[in-house]
Amino acid sequence: MRDYEDVLRAAEAASAVGAELGMQEVVDDLGAESQDVVPYDQGDLSRSMRKTVTSAGAVTVGQVSYDTVYAPYQHYDESLRHDPGRTAFFLSGPAYEDRVRHVDHLAQRVADAIGDA
Length: 117
Hints:
Blueprint: H1 4-37, H2 44-47, E1 49-56, E2 59-66, H3 71-76, H4 92-97, H5 99-116
Antiparallel strand pairs: 1-2
Helix pairs in contact: 1-5
């Protein structure tokens, strides 16, 4: 039987793998959700979306961003007119709406990874 420290190390390593996998899936989902509502004129804003996941030890960070000079203006100014289905808060809106589902997904991926360790 493996001793406690071996089990703990295996669980820590597995949880890091599960967190990274889950975060990549959450970032992909949030990116897709935001693409559905991002303001679209010529597509520059939509094409500027970037998704990253970084891990360092027990810390995993996911990020979805839009990289144009006017992205913050488009995101926060509710007075701008957009095509039907397109909106301000195109990133924070879906992030907020899906927050519980995303957290549950991350927790499940970590639990699955630990269970498989």
